[in-house]
Every structure is written in C-alpha cells, then in structure tokens.
Backbone:
C-alpha cells in the first residue's frame, strides 16, 4: 500500500485518490451543504448567529441551484471529490471586473481536510483555468478580516493584500474584509 505524505502534521490525500472536475447541476446540494458548513466553521462571530443557525442552509442551496442550473458564461465551478465525498469546491468568474480581473468568489475545503494540500491543488486548478481563458487577467478574492487562516493560506500562495471594504453579508451584518490579489504573471500553477 502506498504511503500517505505528511503535510504540517496531517495526512496528505494522494493525488490518485482525489478527482478535480467541473461541477454539474447534480453537485448543487453537496456544494451548498459544504458551503454552509464552511461558513459556520470560519465565519462564526462575523455572520449573525441566527443566520448561521437557520437560513444559511436554504440560502446556500438556492444560490448553488441557481449557479449550476443557469450558469453565467464566465462562471467556472470546480469540485474536488474523494470517491463520492465532496472535499472542496471553488467558483470563479473569469474577467469579472475591468479593474481587478477574475474573481475567485468561493473556495472552500471541508474543515476535516484542511492542511492536506487540497486547497493548494484546487487553487492551482482554478488559476490554470483563469490563465487558459483570460491569460492577461489578474485574480482576486475577498477574505474576511477575522479569517486569519485564510489570509495566511493566500499569502503563502503569493497573494498580496491590496485593499479593504465592508461586506453587507447575508443575515444583516456588515463585515470588514480584505481584497487579496495575484497579478496575471504570478498566479499559482499546477505545473
């Protein structure tokens, strides 16, 4: 049996076990469930407790049904599965902004799989898609001010904190956030 690699004290999932592919409409429920779980894990204290305890499940399901059943032309959603279990997903809008470039709107890894290299591989796959579809496009995303682990992850992968604003979040809260970005020539790569 092939030995598993170690990554910061956690067992790294071997590439041969994990499948990264384009999301389909049939993935909407699993993505919504992971999205809600990830927000409950990472956004407690930023989003309202009432929203995290209730409306988030329906809200995320409606969002992902809409995104995957009637996608816009510049939307790319990738999912990471191990056998039939969703480990992670990412949603990008290619050339979303004339000012900032392509928007990495979502990237979430199941909390039990943090630190196993899945987020790194997914970020590289999304970056490769941006480079293929819009080679001159920068890539940016918004990261909540209190989400220090996400900020560290993106910084380790070459992103730079280039701005800030306030997010009018679901559930009625106003949340400070940072804009992290990569220039077109410095996007992470799987190659």
Residues:
């Amino acid at each position: 049996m092939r030995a598993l690699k170690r990554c910061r004290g956690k067992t790294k999932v071997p590439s041969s076990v994990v499948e990264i592919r384009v999301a389909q409409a049939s993935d909407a429920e699993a993505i919504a469930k992971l999205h809600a779980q990830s927000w409950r894990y990472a956004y407690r204290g930023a989003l309202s407790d009432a929203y995290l305890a209730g409306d988030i499940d329906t809200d995320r399901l409606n969002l992902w049904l809409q995104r995957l059943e009637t996608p816009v032309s510049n939307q790319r959603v990738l999912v990471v599965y191990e056998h039939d279990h969703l480990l992670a997903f990412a949603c990008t809008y290619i050339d979303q902004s004339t000012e900032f470039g392509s928007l990495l709107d979502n990237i979430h890894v199941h909390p039990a799989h943090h630190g196993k290299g899945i987020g790194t591989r997914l970020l590289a796959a999304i970056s490769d898609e941006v480079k293929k579809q819009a080679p001159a496009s920068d890539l940016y995303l918004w990261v909540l001010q209190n989400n220090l682990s996400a900020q560290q992850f993106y910084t380790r992968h070459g992103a730079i904190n280039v701005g800030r604003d306030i997010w009018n979040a679901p559930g009625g809260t106003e949340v400070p956030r940072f804009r992290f970005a990569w220039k077109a020539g410095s996007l992470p790569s799987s190659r």
About this structure: The CA atoms of residues 102 and 139 lie 5 Å apart. The chain has one domain: 17-186. The longest strand covers residues 85-97. The beta strands are 6-7, 10-11, 18-22, 75-82, 85-97, 101-109, 139-144, 160-168, 174-182.
